[in-house]
């Protein structure tokens, strides 16, 4: 049996897009951790950041990950910063973790018009993305079972490539 699959990577890497396509291929439920947090709180992420700060949001994220990583047979997209907490990295290791690796330029291109990313609402989003990459890239690698570069092929081709890799991670029950 294939364990639950958790997608990690920076904002703009395609975690939600790939997650939805992958879950469809596998016949599994898809959960976006950020959307789950919004549904649980009734408030969007920019509002949570404005009222509770990043620390308040990260607390909510850890609680959501604790709940979601207990579910079996799902595909979950995490938020880009989920890996920064050691507790979250330990939770993610309950499943098969796919790191969608995206260059800073790819992230910048994909997020430039997105107002729903509180960390990028400043004068120099590229500098923010570069700083986050330096901090988070080693953490994504630490939790990753599989690393998949993004920005080179279309999402459906990426999912086909991932599907070819998955059989070696099937565990007999």
UniProtKB/TrEMBL annotation:
Substrate binds at residues 34, 58, 80, 136. Its main location: cytoplasm. GO terms for molecular function: shikimate kinase activity. It is found in: Cytoplasm. Keywords: Amino-acid biosynthesis, Aromatic amino acid biosynthesis, ATP-binding, Cytoplasm, Kinase, Magnesium, Metal-binding, Nucleotide-binding, Transferase. Binds 1 Mg(2+) ion per subunit. Its EC number is 2.7.1.71. Pathway: Metabolic intermediate biosynthesis; chorismate biosynthesis; chorismate from D-erythrose 4-phosphate and phosphoenolpyruvate: step 5/7. Mg(2+) binds at residue 16. It is an enzyme of class 2 (transferase). It catalyses: shikimate + ATP = 3-phosphoshikimate + ADP + H(+). ATP binds at residues 12-17, 117. Pfam families: SKI. Its cofactor is Mg(2+). Belongs to the shikimate kinase family. Monomer. Catalyzes the specific phosphorylation of the 3-hydroxyl group of shikimic acid using ATP as a cosubstrate. NCBIfam families: PRK05057.1 (NF003456). This is Shikimate kinase. It comes from Moraxella oculi. The gene is aroK.
């Amino acid at each position: 049996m294939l364990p639950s699959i958790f997608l990690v990577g920076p904002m703009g890497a395609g975690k939600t897009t790939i997650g939805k396509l992958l879950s469809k291929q596998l016949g599994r439920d898809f959960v976006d951790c950020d959307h789950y947090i919004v549904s649980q709180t009734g408030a969007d992420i920019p509002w949570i950041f404005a009222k509770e700060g990043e620390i308040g949001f990260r607390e909510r994220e850890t609680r959501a990950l604790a709940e979601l990583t207990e579910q079996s047979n799902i595909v979950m997209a995490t938020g880009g910063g989920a890996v920064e907490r050691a507790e979250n990295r330990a939770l993610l290791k309950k499943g098969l973790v796919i790191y969608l690796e995206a260059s800073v330029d790819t992230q910048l291109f994909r997020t430039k018009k997105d107002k729903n990313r509180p960390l990028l609402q400043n004068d120099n989003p590229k500098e923010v993305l570069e700083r986050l990459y330096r901090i988070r890239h080693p953490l994504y690698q630490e939790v990753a079972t599989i690393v998949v570069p993004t920005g080179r092929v279309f999402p459906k081709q990426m999912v086909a490539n991932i599907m070819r890799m998955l059989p070696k991670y099937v565990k007999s029950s």
